[in-house]
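Action item from last meeting closed. Structure (474 res):
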């Protein structure tokens, strides 16, 4: 499992996988705005890209009161109906392109009776297969993960998802991650020799589908599972290691070996990180530091050994961020006074940008906080007036970094992370995907958002529905 780097799917990439508009935005002369885009990009570099400006944002927004976005999304364009309004005053920047509804009954291929079943989606991961085709894996509480092919119907220009494969792991799937050609699946299910269900992680080599599944177990005979409880977070993309987090608050660092048990290839536990007293909700690694978040409302920074020597660290907790205690050594700037979250933390997101490396955290307290990755200094805190459950970073068609935040109430709030020529305020709320206005959206909390290639993104709701979106420019 050498040398892959997860998290690259956070980058928007080229236009190759964009569903609408093809490669126009790369064409150069196609749109009058191209030169403007360049100019703006250059100017952007001169702007103060620091988050410090944003420090007061926290106080400005009224808590439990969602701030109004800069643009309203056009509901006709959004839902794929032709917007015929001349000079439509709503934004045509985002379009919903397709969905997989939990309520669409599908034949149960694993059942002899061929019953029709619901398939509540719990997660999604885009994957570019070895032939270069864009596909998506979905996980479901119906115990199965599925692989879909994405294509465009030449007649309707609509996006079509075609199921290619499904597999039953015999337990509800909580986490699914693809790194290079390895698929990791965390689920709660039966384990050999242990009564009851436990937290399992299975790994498949997608390049060699006939290879046996690799199980991540603490011991193949005596502790044949990854966590005693549910596996709640998973991180890949750190060389030959991966990291799991459990409902039990324990973090385990796993290392791949070509011969680990009975001469077979697999993962062994390199280290355990104990300290959290609630479910692990986020894991991220930047600059040789492992960051973890929990429902215990704290963030912990663990020594992973430095950027060049990942894995050689002590894996001890070096910093603890609570509501009242910003990390020691975080500098002497005024932002040091910004503490951590006051409610369960729901996600951590690494963010590499031309102006530095950051970690972004979200919480049920409604705050999204941006932290300097080197020392855990809080760079900004932005309140949303509603609990944030999940996040993703993507780019619009002008390569601006966009933060997507899924709320407890089913909305997706969209922020421009850095100032632009027309939007001078960092972390500005530019749009909100709101079911009440768009007449389409999630019922209940948004469980997961993932960025795909070509300015696309995906959302999964607690309603079990999966939606695919195409972003243009704002
Ligand atoms: Zn319109």
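Sequence:
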């Amino acid at each position: 499992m050498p040398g892959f780097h997860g998290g690259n799917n956070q980058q928007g990439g080229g236009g190759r996988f964009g569903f609408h508009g093809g490669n126009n935005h790369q064409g150069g002369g196609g749109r009058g705005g191209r030169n403007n885009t360049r100019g703006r990009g250059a100017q952007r570099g001169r702007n103060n890209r620091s988050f410090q400006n944003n420090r007061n944002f926290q106080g400005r927004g009224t808590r439990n009161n969602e701030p109004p976005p800069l643009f309203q999304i056009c509901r006709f364009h959004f839902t794929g109906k032709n917007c015929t309004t001349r000079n439509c005053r709503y934004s045509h920047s985002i379009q919903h392109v397709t969905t997989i509804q939990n309520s669409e009954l599908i034949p149960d291929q694993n059942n002899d009776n061929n019953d029709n079943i619901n398939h509540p989606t719990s997660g999604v991961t885009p994957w570019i297969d070895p032939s270069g085709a864009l596909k998506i894996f979905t996980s479901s509480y119906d115990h199965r993960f599925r692989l879909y092919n994405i294509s465009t119907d030449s007649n309707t220009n609509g996006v079509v998802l075609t199921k290619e494969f499904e597999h039953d792991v015999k337990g509800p799937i909580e986490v699914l991650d693809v790194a290079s050609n390895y698929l990791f699946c965390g689920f709660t299910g039966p384990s050999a020799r242990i009564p009851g269900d436990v937290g399992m992680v299975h790994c498949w080599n997608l390049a060699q589908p006939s290879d046996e599944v690799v199980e991540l177990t603490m011991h193949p005979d005596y502790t044949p599972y990854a966590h005693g409880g549910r596996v709640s977070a998973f991180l890949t993309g750190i060389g030959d290691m991966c990291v799991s987090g459990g409902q039990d608050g324990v973090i385990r660092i796993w290392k791949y070996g070509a011969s680990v048990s009975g001469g077979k290839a697999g993962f062994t536990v390199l280290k355990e990180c104990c300290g959290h007293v609630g479910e692990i909700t986020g894991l991220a690694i930047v600059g040789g530091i492992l960051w973890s978040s929990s429902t215990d409302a704290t963030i912990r920074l663990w020594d992973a050994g430095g950027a060049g020597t990942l894995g050689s660290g002590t894996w001890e907790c070096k910093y603890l961020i609570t509501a009242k205690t910003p990390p020691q050594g975080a500098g002497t700037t005024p932002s040091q006074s910004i503490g951590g979250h006051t409610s369960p933390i729901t996600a951590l997101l690494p963010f590499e940008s031309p102006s530095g490396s950051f970690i972004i955290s979200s919480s049920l307290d409604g705050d999204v906080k941006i932290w300097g990755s080197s020392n855990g200094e809080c760079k900004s805190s932005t309140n949303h007036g509603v609990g944030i459950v999940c996040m993703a970073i993507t780019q619009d068609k002008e390569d601006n970094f966009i933060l997507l935040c899924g709320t407890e109430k089913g909305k997706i709030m969209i922020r421009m992370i850095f100032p632009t020529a027309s939007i001078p305020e960092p972390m500005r709320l530019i749009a909100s995907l709101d079911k009440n206005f768009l007449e389409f959206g999630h019922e209940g909390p948004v469980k997961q958002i993932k960025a795909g290639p070509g300015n696309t993104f995906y959302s999964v709701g607690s309603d079990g529905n999966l939606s695919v979106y195409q972003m243009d420019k704002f």
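Note appended to the action item: The two ends are 39 Å apart (CA to CA).
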